[in-house]
Write a structure and sequence with these properties.
Layout lengths: L2 H22 L22 H12 L2 E6 L2 E6 L2 H10 L6 E2 L3 H6 L13 H14 L2 H6 L1 H20 L8 E2 H18 L12 H18 L2 H5 L11 H29 L6 H12 L3 H16 L1 H15 L1 H14 L15 H13 L9 E2 L4 E3 L2 E3 L4 E4 L1 H5 L15 H4 L24 H18 E4 L26 E6 L14
Parallel strand pairs: 2-8
Antiparallel strand pairs: 1-2, 3-5, 4-10, 5-8, 6-7, 9-10
Helix pairs in contact: 5-12, 7-8, 7-19, 8-13, 8-14, 9-11, 14-16, 14-19, 16-19
Cofactor: heme
Keywords: Heme, Iron, Membrane, Metal-binding, Monooxygenase, Oxidoreductase, Transmembrane, Transmembrane helix
Pfam families: p450 (PF00067)
Length: 508
Amino acid sequence: MSPFILAISTIAIILAYKLYQRLRFKLPPGPRRWPVVGNLYDIKPVRFRCYAEWARAYGPIISVWFGSTLNVIVSNTELAREVLKECDQQLADRHRTRSAAKFSRDGKDLIWADYGPHYVKVRKVCTLELFSPKRLEALRPIREDEVTAMVESIFLHCSNPENQGRSLVVRKYLGAVAFNNITRLAFGKRFVNHEDIMDEQGHEFKAIVANGLKLGASLAMAEHIPWLRWMFPLEEEAFAKHGARRDRLTRAIMEEHIVARQKSGDTKQHFVDALLTLQDKYDLSEDTIIGLLWDMITAGMDTTAISVEWAMAELIRNPRVQQKAQEELDLVIGSERVMSETDFSNLPYLLSVAKEALRLHPPTPLMLPHRANANVKIGGYDIPKGSNVHVNVWTIAHDPVVWKDPESFRPERFLEEDVDMKGHDFRLLPFGAGRRVCPGAQLGINLVTSMLGHLLHHFCWTPPEAMKVEEIDMLENPGLVAYMRTPLQAMATPRLPYHLYKRIAVDM
């Protein structure tokens, strides 16, 4: 048989199978798909906004084709409940791209693991051990150290005569907190000293993160069109080198902790120590320990900084809310001390500000996709096994059916009604819900609230000189996580006595 006839026959079989699938299943409606590419060329770069537009045209459950892969997007509270609660077990697997499969050693971690015995085991480790209230409280001094370091850094910028009248890039300071906090929690390492000089391991860590992003981006198009993959072969050697480099750094840090523990006899609270001491109890492989540590870094490094940057943009655009939060802080904390996480229970308005920012600007607007491990029905439509299901939490959080005046930044709504945001109320899902809800949700909430509280207590925030609040760019960058398209610039004016701007350093 000639290659041409073989190719035609193969395409005919695939098309026949697809036609059979369409006749057999009642799929959700959606935009017209094109041969080979599906809807890939119709999708606008900021996907969750594009899907929100399509949901208005086709309904709250839609089919979107990435090449030959069916993606189902749900966009209201009732359908989110079906996906994340009622049909959760059938939709608890993960779609792993070739790069995700390589990075996770075929799902040996938590984020990319399919639902099964391994996932249940590592999830238990995270819930009962790594993110337990006891451990989070034990690690609180690290979080508070890093937040006060941010305050000191901003204060030094403001007090420098050379910066008189000059705005600062807020993301720079938030990113430093997120970076130092997550490396200290996960690895027990602060790669940056008090003079902001990064050590050799820190440079290596940053290079590994940057290289991982580059490798992951190199395969984007071919992931969705299987018969194009021969044109985009997986760079086995590059991925192998990246994995070896990542493992080498992680093992070196693990070894440092083992030696330190043998010398002192003490077990620290950092995640690396916890995993090493729990290795035998939970039968954790080295691949799984390394995978879990890098899961923490992947999930925790960007999301907190993103959430706080959006919140600060909203607070600058809404001076009434900023003033009200500062009045609460002045009443509860005063001007003789700095805020602590132990003050949260007495700061309901500050907590509402954090919650409202996470509603309007969820850091992962589409969550990670859930993959169907069986044929299932959602909203009366068939979802065939192997399809990917996305919950558009951004659209749900902007739905006028469930939220009064949804586009307004109005924290008071959460004083009028207590809405859970850790997966129990399907109107507000910044951390997901169900079997794959983020196990570090409470850690994220604590850090976002602490950063916001310190920024508001220590400084008044206004737009740069000659900029109106309406000119702040409130659109998102394309990507899995929703960065502000234009980094926020602002003027910070100190509002407390000078001695309260000193970093409260903790060595642990």
